[in-house]
Amino acid sequence: MVRLHRVGKKYAPSRVALADVSFELQRGEFAYITGGNGAGKTTLLKLLFASEKASQGAITVNNRDLSALHNNKVYLYRREVGFVFQDFKLLSDLTVFENVALPLGIRKMTAREMEFRVRGVLSLVSLADRASDYPKQLSGGEQQRVAIARAMVGKPSLLLADEPTGNLDSKTARDIMTLFSEIREMGTTVLVATHDESLMQEFPARVIELFQGRIASDTRSNS
Ligand SMILES: Nc1ncnc2c1ncn2[C@@H]1O[C@H](COP(=O)(O)OP(=O)(O)OP(=O)(O)O)[C@@H](O)[C@H]1O
Ligand SMILES: [Mg+2]
After folding, report:
1. What pLDDT is recorded for position 107?
2. Which of 31, 60, 86, 116 could form an S-S bond across to 162 if both were Cys, CB 3.0 to 4.6 Å?
3. What does the DSSP 8-state code read for residue 44?
4. Which phi and psi angles does 133 have, rounded to 5°?
5. Which of 63, 52, 65, 58 is nearest to 15 (CA)?
6. For ligand 1, atom 29, which residue shows the shortest CA distance?
7. Rounded to whole angstroms, how far apart are CA atoms 67 and 168?
8. How close is the Cα of 212 to the center of ligand 2, in Å?
9. 154-201: per-residue pLDDT in tens?
């Protein structure tokens, strides 16, 4: 479903963010990307979201070659992909409802269906009663859950999440991980960048570890 072959990314000639990264993810697989600050986790997710281009190698998602993706076709590709950003990227002038509805705006969908979908994902993240609030009226953890709802609303086949539990207390973090497991059981491939060792122990899955932009280990848990 996702395939990286000898992928490299340089932001500048001397700034190598990723080097010789190869792995595959099956449909419905759940995997973590881990590694220290600056190891290349966010860069890897950005390449998969087509918001950065690889400098080397090949990336295919759903049989699409991302290096051949035209700029004016990126929005079509992104309908298949949900992204939870490290810094949420909620729009402060829009309500929670409007933020979550954003990815649906470019599709032909009736207002009623949009309402149904947005309300549905907001209840999944336990924010059904905050739909008309603005992001600044929410706590950090609540904003993070809005970002997760927005990433899921389009029913993506690939969900990318960058430190999605970074600002959450441990109970909410567990709820979010349970939610990701449920999404994955519906057939979505999920790739989560995280530093959180205890979370990875509690929700065991494949762990792809980066060190200075290279894969240091790629291990599957037995459970
Ligand atoms: N837009 C950019 N321009 C130049 N260099 C960048 C850019 N984005 C990231 N880098 C560099 O690429 C390397 C990998 O960064 P990246 O953000 O992918 O790391 P990360 O593993 O997500 O780190 P963190 O745990 O701190 O979020 C770092 O050395 C970083 O300084
Ligand atoms: Mg990062």
Report:
1. 75
2. 86
3. H
4. -80, 165
5. 52
6. 38
7. 35
8. 13
9. 999 999 999 998 878 888 888 889 989 988 988 999 999 998 888 899
Please state, in angstroms and rounded to a whole number, the distance separating the CA atoms of residues 114 and 213: 40
From the alpha carbon of 9, which atom of ligand 1 is closest? 12
For ligand 2, the distance from its centroid to the CA atom of residue 179, given in whole angstroms, is: 22
Q: What one-character DSSP code corresponds to residue 105?
A: T
pLDDT tens digits for 111-164? 999 999 999 999 988 999 999 999 999 998 899 999 999 999 999 999 999 999
Strand partners of residue 30: 190
First-to-last C-alpha distance (Å) of the chain? 22
- Per-residue pLDDT of 57-105, as tens digits, reads 999 999 999 998 988 889 889 989 999 988 889 999 999 999 999 989 7
Strand ranges of the sheet holding 158-162, from the earlier edge strand across to the other edge: 81-84, 158-162, 189-193, 30-34, 206-211, 214-219
For 26-54+73-80+157-223, give the CATH class.
Answer: alpha beta
Please tell me the distance between residue 37's alpha carbon and the centre of ligand 1 in angstroms. 8
State the pTM of this model. 0.92
Domain boundaries, the chain: 26-54+73-80+157-223, 90-155
